Amino acid sequence: MTESSSHLDFERPIVTLEKRIEEMEIQAETDGLDLSRELHNLEEKVEKLRKEIYSDLSRWQRVQISRHPQRPYALDYIGRMLTDFTELHGDRHYGDDKSIVGGPARLEGEPIMVVGIQNGRSVEERQMRNFGMPHPEGYRKALRLMQMAAKFNRPILTLVDTSGAFPGIEAEERGQAEAIARNLFEMSHLPVPIVVAI
């Protein structure tokens, strides 16, 4: 990825064509020209190029996409896929870990419980979300939501996007390992379906 843009190096041909389309749209509007045919051809070319590039990515290019700063995070997916989402907060023991978001929602009209790991786009938001690394209270919040889903017989959708649990001393003092282990144990006994998207 270059320093000056948020586009990856292998996306450069697509970006070049998209800039050309943008320039032509401005020119058409400014000069009152009908460039719809040319614009349509360029847009088709962009789609074809996009399919070609993304259908044959190297392993490293896939890693670059997974780390892209503009990739969607949990709240982006929730906002686009789900309706009637109500975010619930806190673990009922210590506090609210903002790196874990979740609550009841509807997927195509069906009630579900969603739990996701949220990162941030700005430095301030990343710090608030602890860079997407949950503390023990985040795991306890997730468990509370999953147990609530079991109580109300709702399937669970989890959206995982993390570099791992927060490795700080304070997290270990508050029971990080136990919180993770309890989640795994409890999840294996929940009577509702769990779908995990990574």
UniProtKB/TrEMBL annotation:
GO CC annotation, single: acetyl-CoA carboxylase complex
Enzyme Commission no: 2.1.3.15
Any Pfam family matching the protein: ACCA
Keywords: ATP-binding, Coiled coil, Fatty acid biosynthesis, Fatty acid metabolism, Lipid biosynthesis, Lipid metabolism, Nucleotide-binding, Transferase
Coiled-coil stretches noted in the UniProt entry, renumbered to this chain: 32-59
Domain CoA carboxyltransferase C-terminal: 41-198
Keyword ATP-binding found: yes
Recorded metabolic or biological pathway in which this protein acts: Lipid metabolism; malonyl-CoA biosynthesis; malonyl-CoA from acetyl-CoA: step 1/1
Catalytic activity line of the entry: N(6)-carboxybiotinyl-L-lysyl-[protein] + acetyl-CoA = N(6)-biotinyl-L-lysyl-[protein] + malonyl-CoA
InterPro entries according to UniProt: Acetyl_CoA_COase_a_su, ClpP/crotonase-like_dom_sf, COA_CT_C
PROSITE patterns associated with the record: COA_CT_CTER (PS50989)
Gene Ontology biological process terms in this record: fatty acid biosynthetic process; malonyl-CoA biosynthetic process
Signal peptide annotation: none
GO molecular function, one term: acetyl-CoA carboxylase activity
Protein name: acetyl-CoA carboxytransferase
Organism the protein comes from: marine metagenome
